[in-house]
């Protein structure tokens, strides 16, 4: 089975789902540090989950406009492999955090219309990769993790000077088409592998990874 599409399972909160993701063949596992999220984890829980992660599952911390003290508390206690910045972090802030923590940084970019793509170039040289996600609706409590997709034709075969990952409303049923339409080599999912908000489902995780690899 071809495995060239890399999968990230985000919003892990239980050891069994960390293992389900790794066993299924996901290469990234995400921990959400954002109080308003149903997937929010404490530093202590994230540390336990990260220590559970087998070699081969890169551990990603998702933060939203986090301040230095919050980031220090996370990064001093949790063994991590990547930072996902899912707020309004500027290119300068992205570059600053990348230099300070010495970890690869993935910057989320919300997309709803063609004009949203214009901001991407400013992050070349600041971020290591991009997360191309659906823009959250006005007034949404969460800037991501809403199970909403965007018009994939907007990113059809786009060339950007840094690697990118597709996110937003992906499910086991639509990830194959999403990959086909966008040419994404990496995909990220949260809501689409849950039985209820914040409740991951091991069977859905397996189905998602299998569909992405197919
Ligand atoms: O998952 C969350 O709770 C979350 C909270 C705040 C910012 C981002 C969040 N999740 C990220 O959003 C995208 C898409 O999620 P979904 O599959 O549409 O539910 C994904 O990258 C998550 O990492």
TrEMBL record:
It holds the Pfam family PRAI. It catalyses: N-(5-phospho-beta-D-ribosyl)anthranilate = 1-(2-carboxyphenylamino)-1-deoxy-D-ribulose 5-phosphate. HAMAP family: PRAI. Belongs to the TrpF family. Residues 7-210 form the N-(5'phosphoribosyl) anthranilate isomerase (PRAI) domain. It comes from Thalassobius vesicularis. Keywords: Amino-acid biosynthesis, Aromatic amino acid biosynthesis, Isomerase, Tryptophan biosynthesis. The lineage of its organism: Bacteria, Pseudomonadati, Pseudomonadota, Alphaproteobacteria, Rhodobacterales. Pathway: Amino-acid biosynthesis; L-tryptophan biosynthesis; L-tryptophan from chorismate: step 3/5. GO terms for biological process: L-tryptophan biosynthetic process. This is N-(5'-phosphoribosyl)anthranilate isomerase. The keyword Transferase does not apply. It is an enzyme of class 5 (isomerase). One of its GO terms (molecular function) is phosphoribosylanthranilate isomerase activity. Its EC number is 5.3.1.24.
């Amino acid at each position: 089975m071809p495995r060239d599409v890399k999968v990230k399972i985000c919003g892990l909160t239980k050891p069994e789902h960390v293992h389900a993701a790794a066993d299924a063949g996901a290469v990234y596992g995400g921990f959400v540090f954002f109080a308003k999220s149903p997937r929010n984890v404490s530093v202590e829980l994230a540390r336990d989950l990260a220590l559970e992660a087998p070699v081969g599952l890169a551990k990603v911390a998702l933060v939203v406009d986090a301040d230095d003290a919050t980031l220090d508390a996370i990064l001093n206690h949790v063994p991590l492999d990547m930072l996902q910045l899912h707020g309004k972090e500027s290119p300068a802030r992205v570059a600053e955090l990348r230099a300070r923590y010495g970890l690869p940084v993935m910057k989320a970019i919300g997309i709803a219309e063609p004009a949203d793509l214009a901001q991407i170039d400013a992050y070349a040289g600041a971020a290591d990769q991009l997360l191309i996600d659906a823009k959250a609706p006005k007034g949404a409590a969460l800037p991501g993790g809403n199970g909403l997709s965007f018009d994939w034709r907007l990113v059809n075969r786009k060339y950007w000077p840094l690697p990118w990952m597709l996110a937003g409303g992906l499910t086991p049923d639509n990830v194959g088409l999403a990959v086909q339409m966008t040419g994404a080599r990496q995909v990220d999912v949260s809501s689409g592998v849950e039985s209820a908000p914040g409740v991951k489902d091991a069977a859905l995780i397996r189905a998602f990874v299998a569909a992405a690899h197919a």
